[in-house]
Amino acid sequence: MSDQVVSAENAEEKILLENLPTDVLLMIFLYCDEVSLGRLSQQCRRFNEIINEDCIWAERSRKAIVTNQLSKEMQERSFCILPLREKCRISSNWRKGRFKENIYFSHKTRYMPWLVMNHDHLWLSKGNIILCYQRKSDGLRSNCAVQRLTGHQEDVCRFVEAEDMIFSGGRDGAICGWCSDSGEFILSQRDSHTSDINSVTYVKDVLVSGSRDKTIKFWRWQWSDRRCELLRTIDVQDRVWSTSASSHGGLCAIGSSGYHQIPPLHIYDIEHGLEIMKFNEAYVSGAGILDTLWESPHHLFSTGYDGYIRLWDTRTGWCVNTWEDPYDSPIYCLASDNVHTILCGTSHHGRVQLWDKRQQHSLQMYFMSANHSSPVYSLAFDACHLFVALDQSINVMDFSGIRNTAVDMMPYLFRRK
């Protein structure tokens, strides 16, 4: 009888989880994983309210892939700054490959499109024209183009948006320019090169063009006269595939085809036109650089035919990190959130690869539906959407709306009023 009394007293002295003070529960919940938080938030209203607090998600959201929105560039091209808990939920969708796909502008003619995205619009080259479409919460307003830019006689290869202007280079060897707000045709620099202009880049009134004719040219954009003045021509003795100017300083990265025993990656001083660095990584012949991207004033990404993404330190000239495509495919393009995320488009099966810079293995791959044979010629992304340019369509993946209440961290059974 006495043993029964003691056991009853012990049972009354036990403290249940839901009776703990809020600050203690906060500390416990900080150590829980996302799946556990999702299940705990379904237990009672109090747990749900505590788990909805930003302090639970602050550190997780800073470490989140794609959705962290820590960089200014990522904030500027996103529709809105996501709540911290939403950043974690949508990041889980990216990692697990949960998305809704929309396909736009399907056509039979095969192109090699290029796209540029900002907060409100998506610019897309299609043959010898450049089209601008307004973005919306789940993709594009595809019923009509906001702008239709014409001026090239042959296909547009690359273009860039900068300071309310669109500058482009085409297969006709011409450089063209338009006002991005009004669509007014301002610049027509015919015979700028003797062959295809594979890439253009712009920074601080200087336009750099790279061509198949093995030259790069530096042009001064004259706002008053609305014309380009040729500053200098440099023979790199190799076909130029990509150019990328650093917005942080006066440097320009030049990617070439990698033949003739010439390193395929060069750094030039924009102001003086001097080559200040060659990266002497052991490239095989023909391992050309198809795309480059400045991550910071001293760090540069490069990628190309050899299937590697490389991160270079321009202060030392050394490659400080590499990521190898799991299927050894050439990589045509890449994009970054300037924090943790790299996305790259490959040459086969409409495949996009997701990387976390903190890891060496790939996190996820996405295959574009309805066009499994096309390379990914260009891509852009924000926290919720991935825009992919294929040869016969533009595919948009929306990662924001997919929920799985059984495992996601935010089932929202109880909402605050």
Automatic annotation (TrEMBL):
The keyword Nucleotide-binding does not apply. Signal peptide: none annotated. GO terms for cellular component: SCF ubiquitin ligase complex. Residues 14-60 form the F-box domain. The keyword Iron-sulfur does not apply. GO terms for biological process: SCF-dependent proteasomal ubiquitin-dependent protein catabolic process. WD repeats lie at residues 190-219, 300-322. Keywords: WD repeat. Pfam families: F-box-like, WD40. This is F-box domain-containing protein.
